[in-house]
Design a protein that fits this description.
Layout lengths: L10 H35 L11 E2 L3 E2 L2 E2 L5 H8 L3 E6 L3 E7 L4 E7 L1 H4 L8 H4 L1 H7 L1 H4 L3 E7 L32 E2 L16 E5 L3 E6 L10 E7 L4
Antiparallel strand pairs: 1-2, 2-3, 4-5, 5-6, 6-7, 7-11, 8-9, 9-10, 10-11
């Protein structure tokens, strides 16, 4: 006795089914690929520091929306997080925040009336900034006093690739700084980015900006290149 096997569809239907299945797989793979690319793009845009890499450094004002006398320490920590914190102790006391491995420095000076309320001073801020600010609201409201950008080991390795409001950039010949007008004696208050590694040559301008420069190999005879730019209130 012969057993008849039932076919579920014609040959043409089976081919069309296979084609449909293959097309569905292709669509699914394309969708996954687009989602991966989209997620990658979103992650790349998520860096809160990205806008400042090309924002304008405005003498006496700030960097993009990081504005002297207006931007608070609490808002910066909330938006940018904390990379490195250093307490500043001199004639005035403050906290300096460093980002991008020290290439961006933000200085916040603490008012004496606020400092008097701090039982343990500013040192605990380095251990846990968020907890420190939660315990000390007056520190959270401290405003940006100065900011500074410095070069990396090369143009490509430098975080900041923007320019000042007069068009001067890191790695430019120091002559580019003259666009800021008349030079002056410099600020009397503490400014961001002060350290022993800064170039010895510096020039200050009345609008509230300082350029540090040094001679580099291949820069040309007598030419020095800008290695740090610091912004502070107009003297």
């Amino acid at each position: 006795m012969h057993v008849l096997k039932r076919q579920t569809g014609s040959k043409g239907e089976r081919v069309r089914g296979a084609q449909t299945s293959g097309f569905a797989r292709t669509q699914a793979l394309a969708l996954i690929s687009s989602l991966v690319l989209a997620c990658g793009a979103v992650e790349e845009q998520k860096s809160p520091l990205s806008p400042y890499a090309s924002a304008t450094l405005t003498a006496g004002v700030g960097l993009g929306d990081l504005e002297l006398g207006r931007t608070t320490l609490g808002s910066v920590v909330q938006r940018l997080g904390v990379e490195t914190v250093t307490p500043l102790a001199s004639e005035q006391v403050g906290l300096e925040l460093f980002y991008e491995h020290g290439q961006l420095a933000l200085l916040f000076l603490i008012e004496p009336s606020c400092l008097d309320k701090l039982k343990t001073g500013l040192r605990p801020a380095a251990a846990n900034m968020n907890a420190f600010l939660a315990r000390n609201p007056c520190v959270r409201e401290a405003t940006l006093a100065s900011l500074s950008v410095r070069s990396g080991k090369s143009v490509d390795e430098s975080f900041y690739k923007g320019a000042t409001d007069a068009g001067a950039k890191l790695w430019d010949p120091i002559e580019a700084a003259s666009k800021h007008g008349e030079s002056c004696a410099g600020p009397k208050a503490p400014i961001a980015g002060l350290n022993l590694d800064n170039p010895e040559n510096e020039v200050h301008f009345k609008p509230g900006i300082t350029f540090y420069h040094r001679a580099l190999e291949g820069a040309g005879p007598g030419q020095t290149r800008i290695q740090r730019i610091t912004i502070y209130p107009k003297p």
